[in-house]
Design goal:
Strand order of the largest sheet: 2-1-3-4
Strand content: 15-25%
Largest sheet: 4 strands, parallel
CATH superfamily of the largest domain: NadA-like
Bound molecules: 1,3-dihydroxyacetonephosphate, iron/sulfur cluster
Oligomer: single chain
Helix content: 40-55%
Structural class: alpha/beta
CATH class of the largest domain: Alpha Beta
Number of strands: 14
Distance between the termini: 43 Å
Mean pLDDT: 95
């Protein structure tokens, strides 16, 4: 405990000394989110993280999240130094979407508008017409449907089917999945709902369609948080990564939050949804990054960056 407090103080001191802006995602540990609050940093969903990094006047951005979040910050702010506690913090969606495979699929659907989820590499983004985060996906789906063009969507199959169901668009969907959200299961959820009949179910759209179908509300991490804050309801079952509970309980201390159950491949109920890559953002790795930035710096090849910037800018203008 003493050691943790000393590390926390050391990290806080370093952030101030280096004049860095710490930008953290809700799925990082409670310690990381507390540090972010103490350092005057920003905690948000992936769209907000991108916007805040771009608009900051600080020269050093410290992104506590997964790699695509650091890459997005660098693409939008090439003149800033963007560092991450752990460059190996991946995302299963990013990992399952190979750029060469995408090029082949694109060639099969030349008429389609390529829409890539933000949870992809810079190379994949550079192949896309549009980037979206979960908070914008349905809105963009509806917008593109009005234009009458089919969508080639990569890489999350569940978010893809949710966009299709909500916007009625023609969509070719990549078969990727988030290992965390894919584990939510509808029968186990029914069981928890039976025990908490008054609770509303709030779910991230990366969850399977059968789980999303049972939700009272579907949205990004920030949208789930806002829904819980503004609702008259006092109890919620939460279908997203467990570290969002820190902000949920801070924002709504008088409300009850229950974890939607996660089921392992062997069919056993395990208690929580935990993203292992987000967990790589520790105080130790953050201190290492601030003390020795170069091995923790995000670099994006300039031609790839320019390719990825176009659809990212389009997304940010669409959401403005
Ligand atoms: P949000 O954009 O909702 O924060 O989602 C990011 C993410 O990685 C969800 O798993
Ligand atoms: Fe990627 Fe899923 Fe982790 Fe989000 S929770 S960063 S989508 S693996």
């Amino acid at each position: 405990k003493k050691k943790d407090e000393a590390l926390f103080d050391e990290a806080l001191e370093l952030i101030k000394k280096k004049n860095a802006l710490l930008i953290a995602h809700y799925y990082t540990s409670e310690t990381m989110q507390r540090l972010c609050e103490a350092a005057g940093g920003f905690i948000g969903d992936s769209l907000e993280m991108a916007r805040v990094g771009r608009d900051s006047d600080k020269d050093l951005l410290l992104v506590a999240g997964v790699r695509f979040m650091g890459e997005t910050a660098k693409i939008l702010s090439p003149d800033k130094t963007v560092i991450m506690p752990e460059l190996k913090a991946e995302c299963s969606l990013d990992l399952c979407c190979d750029v060469e495979d995408l090029k082949k699929i694109k060639a099969l659907h030349p008429e389609a508008t390529v829409v890539a989820y933000a949870n992809t590499s810079a190379q994949v983004k550079a192949q896309a017409d549009w980037i979206v985060t979960s908070s914008l996906a349905v809105e963009l789906g509806k917008y593109l449907t009005k234009q009458g063009k089919p969508i080639l969507w990569v890489p999350d199959r569940h978010l893809g089917s949710y966009i299709a169901a909500q916007s009625d668009c023609e969509i070719y969907c990549w078969p990727g999945r988030c290992i965390v959200h894919d584990s939510f299961e509808e029968n186990a959820l029914d069981f928890v709902k039976k025990e908490n009949p008054d609770a509303k179910i709030l779910v991230h759209p990366e969850a399977p369609a059968a789980v999303v179908a049972k939700a009272d509300y579907v949205g990004s991490t920030s949208q789930i948080l806002n829904y819980a804050k503004n609702s008259d309801c006092k109890e919620f079952i939460i279908g997203t990564e467990k570290h969002i509970f820190y902000k949920l309980m801070q924002a709504c201390p008088d409300k009850k939050f229950i974890e939607a159950p996660v089921v392992s491949t062997s069919g056993h109920c395990i208690s929580c949804a935990n993203c292992p890559w987000m967990g790589m953002n520790t105080l130790e790795s953050l201190i290492r990054a601030l003390n020795d930035p170069e091995p923790h710096s995000v670099h994006v090849d300039e031609s790839v960056r320019l390719g990825a910037l176009k659809p990212l800018d389009r997304m940010l203008s669409f959401s403005a």
